[in-house]
Design brief:
Layout: H1 8-34, H2 58-66, H3 69-73, H4 77-92, E1 101-103, E2 109-111, H5 120-125, H6 132-150, E3 155-161, H7 164-167, H8 184-194, E4 199-201, H9 203-210, H10 225-239, H11 246-249, E5 254-262, H12 265-269, E6 278-285, E7 292-294, E8 303-311, E9 320-323, H13 332-335, E10 341-347, H14 360-366, E11 370-376, H15 377-380
Parallel strand pairs: 3-4, 3-11, 9-10, 9-11
Antiparallel strand pairs: 1-2, 5-6, 7-8, 8-10
Length: 395
């Protein structure tokens, strides 16, 4: 059988294919040199910069490269991420729990695989529950904190802000059904309450809010100001059992505006903010706020962000230390009005290796009347870190 020699047209098509292929694989390098990629907003952590190129820094450079430096500095990467998410969400309509963000029903977005250790969808579905040993470990952690504070005359309150999945499960994709009617939050709250540890579970409060207003943003993982204000009211009512002046001071005289300028965090993590527009809820008080942010020297480690210090300069009021996460951001303007000094510190969340830092040195310095441990549900229910066995006694 005689094989026909390629025609001039075939050769031209092959050459064009080769040129297109070479152009495509060279585009990332061209972008790194000339910055020609279109501007795309993708919310993610910046890579650790490479150290100076020297023999003494070679191992550090290798570690930086190993931790995703090349992946995050790849030319046209943000555009490619955006195009992939457009393909997955709007064309293929795929959704699996191992994606960082999943699209729910309508225009609702949900956090899913937050990091290698934490899958929020599995947490919602109650795929893994605590063993009794794990519950006992957590109870011991919080009992030790409460007893340590009580010995110094300091009150202790744990505040749990629910996951968005818990408040709006009806907008999750149907395939993410609950495996068990009991959740880890149910287990841990019940165990702590049985041990006499003061816990404020805000799940019932958010269920009430959603019947009247939007409690959580559609395109973000956080509560709206409606949700945060309702959480603040419940916190002050609980603290009012110890400080009777607090509850009568709760004020509701705010102008409420819906401002169409929210860049939702979940939409930004997909680089699709323009596909998922949303409005922001703004509370403007009818009164002059007393609490003012003040600058005080504090080292950042082992905190995620620098502390926020708010002062009303009213020594007749108690002071408070708040161990917080991102959900406390909307609480700060409300809570701070009731205290002389409010110190907000943001430790890294608990992991399987380490329990969230509880800064006793800070508490000893500040001498607050109360300490608040605020968690979003998915951080509150992390499995406890393994206890380090005690060192063997010296011979």
């Amino acid at each position: 059988m005689q094989v026909q020699a390629p025609t001039l047209g075939h050769k031209a098509i092959a050459c064009c294919g080769i040129l297109v292929f070479l152009a495509l694989i060279c585009l990332p390098m061209i972008d790194n040199l000339c910055q020609v990629a279109p501007d795309v907003y993708l919310m993610e952590n910046d890579p650790t910069p490479l150290p100076d190129s020297s023999m003494s820094q070679i191992f550090k450079s290798f570690n930086v490269l190993q931790r995703g430096y090349l992946e995050k500095t790849f030319g046209f990467r943000k555009l490619l991420v955006r195009l992939e998410n457009i393909l997955d969400i709007f064309w293929l309509r795929v959704s699996n729990q191992y994606q960082t963000v999943i699209k729910g029903k309508g225009d609702w977005l949900f956090l899913s695989q937050e990091n290698n250790d934490l899958n929020v969808i599995q947490d919602y579905r109650s795929v893994r529950l605590f063993s009794q040993k794990q519950l006992n470990r957590w109870v011991d952690v919080y009992r030790d904190r409460q007893e340590w504070l009580s010995a110094r005359g300091i009150r202790y309150l744990i505040v749990v802000a629910p996951n968005k999945h818990t408040v709006y499960p009806e907008f999750l994709p149907d395939q993410f059904n609950k495996v068990s009617p009991v959740s880890r939050t149910d287990q841990l709250v019940s165990a702590l309450e049985a041990a006499g540890i003061t816990v404020l579970d805000l799940r019932p409060t958010m269920d009430l809010v959603k019947r009247q207003a939007l409690a959580y943003y559609r395109t973000d993982t956080h509560w709206t100001t409606f949700g945060a204000f309702a959480g603040y009211v419940q916190i002050m009512k609980r603290l009012g059992q110890w400080f009777p002046r607090f509850e009568p001071e709760i004020r509701g005289d705010y102008d409420i505006a819906i401002v169409p300028d929210l860049n939702g965090g979940l939409a930004s993590m997909l680089a699709l903010g323009d596909f998922f527009p949303e409005s922001r809820v703004v509370f403007t008080p009818h009164f002059q706020r007393k609490a003012v942010e003040t600058a005080e020297p504090h080292t950042v480690p082992p905190y995620f962000q620098p502390p926020v210090i708010m002062n009303t300069n009213d020594p007749s009021r108690p002071s408070v230390v708040v161990f917080r996460d991102s959900f406390a951001h909307e609480l700060i303007p409300f809570l701070s009005e009731h205290f002389n000094k409010t110190t907000y510190v943001w430790p890294y969340p608990s992991t399987a290796r380490e329990v969230r830092y509880f800064d006793k040195d800070l508490i000893e310095r500040e001498k607050p009347a109360v300490v608040i441990d605020e968690f979003v549900e998915r951080y509150f229910t992390e499995f406890p870190a393994k206890q380090t066995p005690p060192a063997a006694p010296a011979p």
